[in-house]
Amino acid sequence: MGNLKIVFTFPGQGAQIPGMLQDVPHYVKKAERIIGASILDDEKAFQSTIWIQLALFLKGVAVAERLIEKNVCPQFVAGHSIGAFAAAVISGVLTFEDALKMVWHRAKRMDEAYPEGYGMGVICGLTEREVKKAVDLAYHVQFPVHLSNINAEQQIAVSGSWQGIEKAFQFAKQFGAQKTTILQVPIPSHSPLMAELSEELLDLISKVPLNDANIPYLANRTGRMLSDKNKISEDLALNVAFPVRWNDMTEVCVESGADCFIEMPPGHVLSNLVKQAHETTRQIVVDEVGLEATQYLIKKWKEQDE
Fold first, then answer.
1. Are 221 and 239 a contacting pair, CB within 8 Å?
2. Residue 265: closest CA among 95, 16, 5
3. In the beta sheet, which residues pair with residue 181?
4. Residue pLDDT, tens place only, 225-279
5. CA 112 distance to own-chain centroid
6. Which of 42, 140, 143, 188 has a C-alpha 20 to 30 A away from that of 292?
């Protein structure tokens, strides 16, 4: 077989689609037994970060495991935000049950901490330094806003109060931003506003049995490749309070020889970001082509690469 090096990517909040769990009922039932609650994936439920995070985690694990059963196996895993927990399960660091319990706790606490008036937005067309300047100018102790995820060189998220985000958008436009967008994320994730929760998660994960990764895991907080269980558990706990350095994560994958990125459902946001930054890589969006076509393409590309 050829030397195709595959990355499984797992999307974060904002990618959710109502009804996305309808084709993975086995995983939903299993999760409901573990957390003792009925899991919802309709439009009304997705106004809450709780159900968004659970749905993304379950779907990511379910589809990745199906692909592995079909002999489509990754050489690297990279999850964006909540996607990191699915990545950790697939890399063998955490069991499904332990990861699910952490996701459940994380999601409920995030929802309680900022029930309304907070969220995330994206600024396109400015550098990280320029966005930082816009955020610093917009910041007010009553209406906080912080630099958040570095998705691409010029696609950067901000987190905080809606007033703070709008103010940051105004400054960003003055600096020449091409576009500003409010995300479908009802919490100020990946910012210092989540520092208390990250400490709680550190304590929680310290009590869970962990394994070193059998598939290298890309860290949200540093963008580095990790296999050490303690460093990965730290990344899972702390990523909620720090920006996701997605741009660095994919850069490290490509430098390590990755040439094919397979995005777990839902959506295609991560594939678009990788394609923009690394034109020579191949992308498969499972949501668009399905599992059978994914398996076929990988087999075909491996044969071509022999």
1. yes
2. 16
3. 122
4. 999 999 999 999 999 999 999 999 999 999 999 999 999 999 999 999 999 999 9
5. 21
6. 42
CA distances from 275 to 113, 250, 271, 287 (A): 36, 10, 6, 17
Q: Is pLDDT above 70 for 196?
A: yes
pLDDT surpasses 60 at 2: no
Residue whose token pair is 């769990």:
21
Q: Which residues pair with 37 in a beta bridge?
A: none
End-to-end C-alpha distance for the chain, whole angstroms: 6
Instruction: Output the DSSP codes for the chain.
Output: -----EEEEE--TT---TTTTTT-HHHHHHHHHHHTS----STTGGGSHHHHHHHHHHHHHHHHHHHHHTT---SEEEE-TTHHHHHHHHTTSS-HHHHHHHHHHHHHHHHHH--SSEEEEEEESS-HHHHHHHHHHH--SSS-EEEEEEEETTEEEEEEEHHHHHHHHHHHHHTT-SEEEE-S--S--SSGGGHHHHHHHHHHHTTS-----SS-EE-TTT--EE--HHHHHHHHHHGGGS---HHHHHHHHHHTT--EEEEPSS-SHHHHHHHHH-TTSEEEEHHHHHHHHHHHHHHHHHHHH-
Burial zone of 60 (CB within 10 Å; 0-12 exposed, 13-18 middle, 19+ buried): buried
User: What is the spatial distance between Cα 193 and Cα 188, in angstroms, rounded to a whole number?
Assistant: 7
Q: Is the pLDDT of residue 1 over 50?
A: no
Average pLDDT, the chain: 96
Bridge pairing between strands 145-152 and 155-161: antiparallel
Q: Beta strand 6-10 with 260-263: parallel, antiparallel or unpaired?
A: parallel
